[in-house]
Structure formats: C-alpha cells, structure tokens
Amino acid sequence: MYQYEIFIIEYKNKMKKILFILLVFILFACKENPQQPVITPKDCPLPLQFTDPNAMPIGMHYASALSPDGTKLFCSVGGVGANILDLRTLNISLFDITPLIPKNSKLALAGVAPIIHWCPYDNSKFVVIARLGVDTIGDGKKYPGGYHLIICSINIAYYKDITPKNFLPIGSGSPIRLDGWLRKSYMGNDWFLIGYKLNDFGESYYSSYNPMTQEILEQEYKGLITYSSDWKYQYFGNHDSSFKPRYYINDKELIFDNKEYVDIGFASFSPDGKHFAIAANVYDKIKQYDSTSRLAEVWIIDVEEFMRNPVQPVPVKIINIKEKFCMFSYGLHPVFTSNNKLAVSMFKSGDTFSYLHEIDLDGNYIRQLTFSP
What we know:
Layout: H1 2-29, H2 48-51, E1 59-66, E2 72-77, E3 80-86, E4 92-94, E5 105-112, E6 117-118, E7 125-134, E8 145-153, E9 159-161, E10 177-181, E11 192-197, E12 204-210, E13 215-218, E14 224-227, E15 234-239, E16 245-249, E17 252-254, E18 262-269, E19 275-282, E20 295-302, H3 303-308, E21 317-320, H4 321-325, E22 335-338, E23 341-346, E24 353-360, E25 365-368
Parallel strand pairs: 1-24
Antiparallel strand pairs: 1-2, 2-3, 3-4, 5-7, 6-7, 7-8, 8-9, 10-11, 11-12, 12-13, 14-15, 15-16, 16-17, 18-19, 19-20, 20-21, 22-23, 23-24, 24-25
C-alpha cells in the first residue's frame, strides 16, 4: 500500500512537470505566428506598379457584403458586377438575374452593382441596383438603358423591380444612390434610403422611399456610408466648409492621427456591431514610395469603447499588410467575414491579380479566399 502511495505521488509530480513544460511551450510557441516572420524592408520589394508609372495595373477582387448567416460573401472584379463566394467551400459563382428579368429587358454590360443591402426581416432577400435596357416599342431593336432598384433572393429565385414609377419603364437616367433598407420595414411595407435626380442635370434629392405606396419623403442628407446590421451604429462622411473630409459614428466625430496624410477608404461594421474596420492608405506628400512607406493599412476601432469614451484622436489598432505579410493593395476593401475576421484584397510583388484573403483582427493571416480572376 505504501509503495502504491509513493507511485501515485511520483506520478502526480511527473504530470505536473509535463503540464508545466507543455504550458511553457504553448506560451512561447504562440508568441509569434510562424506564418508571419518579421519582414525587413529590403526583403519586401515594392511592386513594379508602385514605382514605374508605365507599368500595367493589375485586376482585383473587392468584397462588398456578408450574408446575414455568415456563409456567403458578395464580391466583384474591380467594383463591377457581383459574384457570390461560399466561405465554407470557397466556390464562387456569378450572381446572374438574367433568367428573372422581363422578356423585353436586357441586363447591361455593367450588370448588377456590388452594392448590397440586406432585408431587415428576411435573411434571404436583399436590394441591389441594376442597369437594364428596356425595349419600350416591342420591336427588339432598341433597348434604352436606365438604373433600377431590384429586390432579389440569395438563391436567385425571387425578383421584384421596385424602381420609383416616375422612372419607369426605362429606369433612372442618372445613377440611383442606394444607402439602406430601413429597420422600420416589415413584410409589405418596405422603406429604403435613396438618392436620385429627375434628369441628368437636375437637382439631387435624398429621400426615404416606400415602393408599395410610392411615398417619397425627403430627408436631410448627412452622408451615410454604412451602418451596423441593427442600425444601432451609423457611419457618416462629409466635408466641412474648407472641403476637408470629416467622419462620424453616430454623432461622435472620428479624428484620426495625421489624417492629412491618409486617404480613408471602404469601411464596414462587424456582424455584432462591436468593431469597425476602415481601409487607410498612408502616404508621404514629400517623397516617393519606397521601402519605408506605410501604404495600405486596416484600422480597427472598438466601437463600444469609443462610444463610451470618444477620445481624440480615436484609438485604432493598425494592421499594416506590408509589414505583416509583405503584401500590397490598390484598395483593401475590408469586409467582416465573422465578428473577428476580415476579407481584404491584396497581392504580392510580381502577382498578376489581387485576390481576396482572410485575416483576423490581430493581424494574423488565415487563408486565401479567391484564386481565379
């Protein structure tokens, strides 16, 4: 019995040592991501497109919107058209409404704009802008084109043209601005935020619009850019009297450090609204691009913390893709693929296309999402 007790004590002591060694190994192994070695400037050459003005630009994928269930990502090639990327299988398919449009209509070359706003009460439906040519005479010869507002479903089984009737049948001659599917909507009573012109050279209008009743209620334009899925947080961008850009989340201004040397680009909220990602291109007005240039970055804002304590300049977590991955971008277009992951468009020096890649909010590389132009 005594020997058994000694054995148990020795066994426990050995297990404690093993557990301690494992814990130390895990802590030190996780300290640095093996996928992200430290990259010195000389080991990360700039792409030819950044140094040679005669170099041909490369094509790129842009992410635009995540489906409410988090399984599908809308994206486009160079901001034209719309594709659907399945985040589970990485299969990509063209979003094509051609089979659903009326027989007297044709989808124009630009097709469906990659501007997606999801229905607040039905996760399968969303609204897009499409440019259609409509044969108003019926002889099949001329198809004058215009912009239409279309409600579709993710499986491309539902189609409804909700363009204001004063633009029909051809559609709006000037592009329609589509800013959101309003939270107050419910089945049979939808409201949208739209901007439009009655003619090419006419006055611009900004209104909430109900396609069922054809009510158009003029609104003050505040520069809404995007919003969280529950509309709790809204991101605005406008210009002051000196034409300098200003940005806000709700009524709290976002003042960035050294903002005169930064171009602010695409932005999105995480599905839970707790984080906000902004594409930032940091440049130096005095010198040309070189190995020390910061270039493309993702800036992450903790939304809830900022709303509680809106200090200025706003604290941001910076993910510099050149320093992290030795990669570059013409426009990162960060779109959340989950509450803690982002899809961004980036490429390496020598690449012929800028594909979508997934990273997390700590700047860890996860995976490549698209592989074919």
